[in-house]
Fold:
Amino acid sequence: MGFFSAARQGRKDDAELGKGLWRRAHDRFHRGLDRYHQVLEGVEDEQLYAELVEVANELAGLMERVRVVCVEAQRRSPSEGLDIPGDLAGVHRSLSKAGNSLATTAEAAAMLRLAVGPVPVGAASVRRRAESVFEQVADAERRLAEDAAASGQPESLSG
Structure:
């Protein structure tokens, strides 16, 4: 991404995500995804690499879903600081857990990359950790939808 496109994206992110809690949740997930992809660069075993790339592609598919949740949460409960709004605390908790799980998924991939010799179970440990990321993103979406229903707001999650 060039300088000007990065600046444009930053302004768009500020407008849609604010500069507080929801922006931090989004950016943390994005950094975790970047870290996972960085780990892939050092994998020499072709079969393991193929398995890890498959997981990477699935995780990358979550980025837009995380963004949609964060944009909607910012719309409903704007945040310019780090105070967690009570009505969306569960959404934030799920996003935070998803970011943490993504970091441990990247860590598990890094450990496989450093393994000496063939890895007998392939990327099974990475896949297990990635499953929790999917569950937590789905939980954030569910909680946001439940909050919309409880408050009588039209659900505007798309994805």
User: Anything to note?
Assistant: The longest helix spans residues 46-76. The CA atoms of residues 35 and 52 lie 13 Å apart. Helices lie at 3-17, 21-40, 46-76, 89-113, 124-151.
